[in-house]
Every structure is written in C-alpha cells, then in structure tokens.
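Hey, can you fold this?
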Amino acid sequence: MPQPSPTLAARPGNPYRRLFTVPGARAFTIGNLIARLPIGMFSVSAVIMIAGARGSYALAGAVTATGLAATAVAGPWVARLIDRHGQARIAVPATAFALLGALALLLCVHYDAPGWALCAAYAATATTPNIGGLSRARWAHLLRDDPDALHTANSFEQAADELCFMLGPVLAVLLCTRLFPEAGTLIGGILLLTGMLVFTAQRATEPPPSRGARTAAPFRAPGMPPLLLGLLATGVVFGSMEVVTIAFADAHGHKAVAGPVLALQAAGSCAAGLLYGTLRPAGPPERRYLWCLALMAALMSLPLLAARTTGSLAALAPALLLAGMATAPTMVTAMTLVQRRTPPGRLNEGMTLAVTALLGGMACGSATGGWAVEHLSPTTGFTVPGAAAITALLIAAGHRYAVRTP
C-alpha cells in the first residue's frame, strides 16, 4: 500500500500534475471518470424512454422520483457496507444489482408493464455506489497527511462532477434520439460496470475497511447536521435553477437552447473549481466555507437581475456563467468539512450522506422552482435559488455563532 506523501504540495510545478504522481492515482481516476459519466445519463435516458413509449411525462417523472427516493434510503446503507467490508467487495455486486434493475426497467417498458412495475424496477438501481464519494475517500486516505494536496484533489473531483453532469445528459439525448430510446440506458450501464471494474481493480489505493469499528453515525457527528442542512439548501439552488432557466427560455421561445445555457453554469463552476484547486487554502475551512457561501449568495442574484432588467436569454447566459463560479469552491470546501467531521472508518457513508442531502435539495428545488414558475412567473422563479443560497449561508453562520457562544 502506498504511503501518503506529506511533501507533495511542496513540490514545484502544476498541482494537478503533482497530484497524479501519487502511485495508482491515474489508474483509479480513469475508472472513476468512466463510471461517473453515466450518472448524468440515467435519469434523462429513463425520461426519454418512458415518455416516448407511454406518452406520459408524468409517469416518467414519477418513476425517476421513485428512484431518487430509493437512492436516499439505499445510498447510505450501501456506503456503510463499503466502509465495513471494502470498496471492491461491495461496490461491484452493488453495481451489478443496480444494472439488473436497469435491465428490468427496459423489459418493463418494452412489454408494457404497469406503472408500479416501472417504479419498482427503477428503484432497484438505487444500489449504484456513489463513485464520486468512493474516489474522494481514496484521496482522503492517500493524502491524509497533506491537506493542501487533498484540497487540490477535492477540487479536481468537483470539476469532474460538473463535467460529467454537463456531458452526461447531452450524450444520453444523442444516444436515445439518434440510435433507439433504450440506447442511453444500455450504454450507460456498460460504461458504469466497466468503470467500476477498472476502479475497484486498483486495490493498492483502496482505503482499508473499518470491519467492526464502533463509531458514531456520521449524521450524529459534531458539526455534521448543520453541514448536511446547508448541503440540502445548496441542492435547492441547483434544482430550482435548472427548472426556472428552462421555463424562462421556453417563455421567450428559445427552449431548444436552454440546455446549452444551463451548461454555461456548469462550465463556470468547473473552471472555478480547477482554479480553486491551484490555490493554497488559507485559514480554517469553516471560515472559507462561510466566504464561499456568501459569494454564492451574492452571485445567485445575477440571474434574477438579468432576467428582470433585460428579459433576455442573451443576458441571462453570462449571468449563469458567473453564478456558477461560486458553486464549485463552495462544494469543495463543504466536502473538506465532511471529510474532517466524519468519524474514522465511515468516510464513504459520510460522503454519501452529503450527496443524498444534495439530491434531496435538488428534488425540493425542482418542485419549488416549478411552483414559482407556474403560479408567479419565470422571472420571479429566479428568486428561489437566491433565497436557497442565503438560507445555506444563514445555516452555516448560525452554527459558527452557536459554537463560539457558550
């Protein structure tokens, strides 16, 4: 097993190039990226496939919502098993079981099964391991004595998240429309299994399992509840911004370009995340987290300002680009806090809880943004992500005040 390098950040040169001099890092990162891309494909592929076969977006939405709810329950449980028994031993069979669920969904759609069967099949895919959390856990293990290098690694992982969620839906749409409706799910499944096998084959970089270690549940660890609540509010930012932007573009007769416009937000976040990783963090991460949330709250006002003052999609696009630049630094710092506050031996579970909070927030944000668009206006809908960002800031600030005040 390679030993952590406490002097990695002190070496000259590009910090990302130094990062991948860690033995085994390139190999598990290749598998990680292959397995991560389909995560942004599956829900879009399912919606296109089900809506095309049944002519009902309501059914497609119900099926994907069921999968999200199942993931919120099964995700932390799978991560707990991974912490106890090791990544390779649990992640591969969990992935195989999830792919059986995806195959069952294809068969249910093809043979015109009832809606409840589609929901049950898609719920079985909830055992898909959180590959981003698995990769971050490896970096945390390898770089546990090098906080600067770990900061760069977390920044890289966040940029990879943004890139895959930017490319995944585009690839899913191309496959489902240019080949056949089931192509997105089939090819996504092949990529997921291939990437997971490559990733878990790198045993030298795998964190040791905790076995029967008795530690507090991550959500009960000091400082974790407010952090998870803050991530829930941050998820509302992401979910509501997507719905409101699509509605705004549709209201102005440009629904076809809503995807590329939304991609600008992810592009801004990806670029900012990579830049953030080259900087040496100063001060405690709690203070940096507050500053990042304050910046995100400020920049989230730009889309509302652009929509209200100009009513133009051309003005909204650069506003979304700028707004996205605060999200990656916020998420990088939040994940650093998750790594520090999670009890030893339960890091995969802690990371999965963070992702679950984000997904739950995205679901709430989609619903809230949709309500605001329908009952108020698309322009007014941009107040939802701004309000959610302010809420996340208030939660973090309130926790810091409570800690400082006896």
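Oh, and this one too while you're at it.
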Amino acid sequence: MRFEPRARANARVVVPPRSERERWQREYERWLRIGDLVVIVTAVGVAHVMRFGGTANPPLAATLPLEVRYTVVSALLGLVWVVCLSGAGTRSPRIFGSPEEYRRLLSATMTLFGLIAILSLVFHLDIARGYLAIALPLGLVGLTAQRWWWRHWLTKRRLVGDCGIRVLVVGSRDAASAMIAAFSRDPGSGYQVVGMCTPDIGLVGIAVGDRTIPVVGDDRSVLAAVRYTQADTVAITATDDLGPADFRHMAWELDQIGVELIVAPGLVDISGTRLTHQLVASMPMLHVGKPQYDRARSNRKALFDICFALLAVTMLSPVLLAIAIAVKVTSTGPVFYLSERIGRNGRPFPMIKFRSMYVDADRHVDALIAAQGGNTVFFKMKDDPRVTPVGKVIRKYSLDELPQFFNVLRGEMSVVGPRPQVRREVDSYDGVMWRRLLVKPGLTGLWQVSGRSNLSPEDSMNLDLSYVENWSMVLDLLLVSRTLGAVLRGEGAY
C-alpha cells in the first residue's frame, strides 16, 4: 500500500504556475529579490566599514535598557529595507519594464527614511548620520542600477520573442486594430498579439506590418478563443456587445485558468500624469486632465533651455570647431547652412546647421521630390546625392544639428519640442496639426528617440501632438537622456 504524506494545516502551499507567463514572471521576480538582497547587504556593509572602519562594532547611542551595537543596527536596517521593498510592490509583475518600478523603489526608500526618523524620535536614538548618509543613497543608486540592468535584459529577451505576454484582443474592428497597432509599435513591452475576437461579421484577419492577426471568434466566444490561441492575457477595448455583468463573469472564468484581463479605455496619447482614477457609484472612472499647452511655454522650461544650451555650447566648443574646419576644407561653400523653419505661432526663423550638402543642393530639390513620387509634405531621402562625404558622417550622428543650440539661446527653439517644420509642411496643416506650433520646435523630442527619419509622416505628427499635450519637465529630462543613446547609435538618421 502506498501512503501520501499529509500537508500540515499551516504549511505554505506553493501553487504551480498556470501559464508560461506566470512561469517566467516568477523566475524574474526571484532574480529581482536576490539582486535586491545583494545590493542592500552591500550598501549596509560598505556604510558600516566606511563609517566605523574594519571590524569596529560601536554601540548605538540610545536610551534603550539594552546595549545595541551597530552590527545589529545594520542587520535590522537591511531587513526592514527588504520588507519596505516588498510592501511597496517593487517586484510586482504588473510593473515589470515600467517606469513605475523606479517610483516604487524611491517610495520604499523614503518610507524607510521616515521609519528611521520616527524610531529615532520615539526611542531617542542617535544613529550616526554619516552611516545613514552612505547606506541609504548608495543602496538606492544600487537598486536603481540593478533594476535598470534587469529591465534592459528583459527588453532584449522580448525583442527576440522570449518573456512575452500572449494577448488575445477583443473589440470592434477599428478599436481592436488601433490596439494591435499600438502593441506592434512597442515590441519591448512584450505584448504579442496571437488573435482577435470581434463582433464584425466577415472579418478574417487584420494586417499589421508584415503579420496578419487572425480573427478567431467573436466577443461571445472569448474562452474558446483563449484555449485555441493559448493566450495568457485578454485585452478588451471598445465593444458594444459586452455589458458590466459580462465583464464580471469573464474575469471570474479567466482567473480560473490563469489568464489576466486588461480593459483599455480607448484613450490615445494621454500621459499618465493627466489621468486620475476615481470610483463613482461602484464604477471605475478616469478623469482626463487638460492638455499642458501653457506648461510647455512656462518660464522654468525657458530657464532650463538657456542653462542647458549654454552648458552644451561651452562643453562642445572643441567639437564645434573641429566640425567647422572639416566642412570648410572638404567642400566649397559656407560652414553653416541657414534653413527656414516655422516656429511657435507660425513665425519663421533661420535654423542654423552645419552645411552637410553641396552649395547647389536647393536647386535639385524639386526634381528629387518628383522622383520620390511628389510628396512635398514629408520629403526625406536615405541616400541623398546632394550630401557631401563629411555630411554623411555628421548627419548619421546628428552633429550637423549642434549649432541649433544658438537658436535656443536666441529664443527661437527649445532643447526639447516638436520637430522643426518647413513651410511646405505647415502650408498643408489642418486645425489638428496646427497645434504642433503652439510651442517652440526642439532639437530633440519624441520623434528623435522613436525612429527619427524612419518614422512615417503620421507617426511623426502624432508624437509631436502627444508631446505638446502631455509636456512635463520629467518628460524633457527623460527625452534628453534617451536622445544621447539614439544619437550615439546613429539610429534612423540620414
């Protein structure tokens, strides 16, 4: 006879993963936990050695009845720090690869600061300030660097098809198509659309890039479609056939088989800073804040532009001089090229660039536009015969645009903003696209870090409109940092 051991009533039952998504998420979370522990132990240990030296273990100055030495303080600090990270949800699968991960890291560390301050006040603890001044900042930097490395690793794995989230999209034809296109534009997010359910009769598939997403059912056969496609996430967008009761029952049934449910509100290009979640009469609602046109024209943005441009010109002056000499000695003509661009409120200004073309380049533009099919609104050639040998190099790494810092100092441009527009583009604008001209054009922007010249005209316009409506200083700083990486890699520039 074979006997199976009984589990104790209070034993922790480990539930096996129900999908491939849960499997890799658990493994990823485990490595994050190990990495956090290593960073915290290192930070606390380094602080202990640097502050007290070697094997010294002085007592904590306190009014406690028992003597507590700093070895115990270090152990407790590390333990509470780990608890704070777990309590703040810094390793939640929902924020893997999201900027929210960094915000929660900072929040957990600030919570630890607060707990130390409260305990010091209540128990009259005199914790060495130098010890804390080393441990907490060093730990925060280490945790952030570790998470950045893991995010970079996860993104690379997702780009080759690993660590993905298999998504079944449910909704009307237009709404589902928009969602699928959004997922395809961001392969690093890991959302891999494997099928679509729509009430539109007769639709067999939707072409997205070089793929065709098959229609595997309607919005009443989601469970069968999940089993057929082996999806581990269902994303529902606008559809008239599903009511509140249908959503509730679907969530119950999907949970039983380990499938997540995502509901997209259908909002496009709205930043998270403009969204506020509210619960009204048991209904979740999103309040959308007003577009940030005025903030994008604020004095603090102008001050940032001037300070950043002055610093850049000062630090890059040797590079500017070297490029100027290279342009002058390799081809005839002036060093700088002044090109008319349309600035804020439709005012034209001369944009300064290093000359990267031959002096008679403008005389050939009409013929080249005709050869490209006559698209005068967004004319850009990858192998432009008018570009000089030196011009190809400085264009690839956007060095020809460095003189635009002088446009920033003159108040005509901003460091970050919409792409500078030529007159033929502006003349074709409708009321929507004109909003791009509500702020100054920028040296860099969302268009610069999202593909640059590889972008389609529609994508470029949408990115500019998104920047104008969702501006924040944090966004500007993020785009400046991301631009440096895009420029060094020479991505999408010609």
